[in-house]
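In the laboratory, one determines a bound structure by crystallizing the protein with its ligand and collecting diffraction data. In a computational setting the workflow is compressed into a single prediction: the sequence and the ligand go in, and a structural description comes out. We illustrate the idea with glutamic acid.
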Amino acid sequence: MVTVRFAPSPTGYLHVGGARTALFNWLYARNTGGKFILRIEDTDVKRSTQAAAQAILDGMKWLGLDWDEGPYFQQARLHIYQEYAQKLVDEDKAYYCTCSVDELDEQKKQAMNIGRAAGYDGRCRNKGEKQGVLRLKIPEGNTIFHDLFRDRFEFDNSLIGDFILVRSDGTPTYNFTCAVDDGLMDITHVIRGDDHIPNTPKQLLIFSALGFNPPRFGHLPLILGTDKSPLSKRHGAVSVMAYQEQGFLPEAMVNYLALLGWSTTDSQQLFSKEELIKKFSLKRIVKNPAVFDMEKLQWMNGVYIKQANPKELASIVQNCLPQRAQREEKIPVEEIIKLYQGRIRVLPEIYEFGDFFFSSKIHIPEEICHEILSKDGVKEILTETKRVLETLKMFDHSTIEEAIRTMAERLGIKAGDIIHPLRVVLTGKKVSPGIFEVAALLGQERVVQRISDGFVLLQTES
Ligand code: GLU
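The predicted complex, in structure-token form:
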């Protein structure tokens, strides 16, 4: 059975690269009916925090990447690493080394001077030390692996040198814990970022020393920004949860992340999660760097917003944007979303396009005021509009529309002569969704108030 894992170190939030790694592992497990394990690699106590571990779990949950086993925390497995370290000592496959930092530096310098490999030269191998750092006894030769997504890799063992498995304070190193766990958890495929390529020969050497069956390794391409430099904060948020806060939908995020290094033969762009699971294949992962294009992600998010249930979008807006949502308690967010769903790319854009719904006072730019409101007759039209709308018993879209159209007929003017200035005083804009719907959503009280506020402006204009 395919068994894969996501093994983040909880030293920060779940970033875009980590989420892509988690997603590819998850997709592979779901595609093959295999198992997806979550393992938190928290042995670096100085840099690991519980908050970061929680942030990673939250990010995974938000993306909907459920795990079949775990989360395993390596801190709770220290006795296991100890046991395997001892086994390697007993079998004479690892040894303690007491070389000081200065000695090691000196060794390195000498090796480099004579053009030799700079790995540890193994001088403590046969000393029979009982303490110090624990090093793996590396056999002569080469370590070779065939990457799932790339070519063959071959490493000269003498360049690697007898590396450290356990530090002198007794804490195991990443390569050791990772290999022990991958072995014990029967991981069949290790899919991770290509920054781990130099670790792979070391882990293979540990596998071999422990007599474990090695997994296949596949290293995912680097993620770059559109300027082709490694993805960083300069290119936008790198934390997955920041995307949640910015009003991205998890379905869009998953769809977008899936395309960072993977595609189908026909270059399809939009995939539901079910479709991704069905079509995902390791064979179509590329080795070239993937480019994270914010514009494309925003476009994709817009597509998902358009298709989404407005009720769900409203609850996201209210949950994810708490300070704003509190102020807007009485505002019919769901109805407002319906008005803008087809044209926004991220949810907070409803606050830009529909700002007039969310604040009690609106701002009317001077040029719009001048162009539309200071025309002859507008003041009279607005006065009458206010009177008509004020007296309506019902304040829904069609009642408002009928009242305005009747008024236009009665005064012998075009409906547009009423609608244009009304739009300006209600929204501060020349363009908006249908004004009758807008008025209905604003409610009678606010509509009447805004027309009155418009008069004040007209007074100052004239
Ligand atoms: N804990 C490692 C990291 O977060 C990943 C280890 C692995 O996938 O092998 O970079």
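The mean pLDDT is 93. Keep in mind that any predicted model is a hypothesis to be tested, not a measurement.
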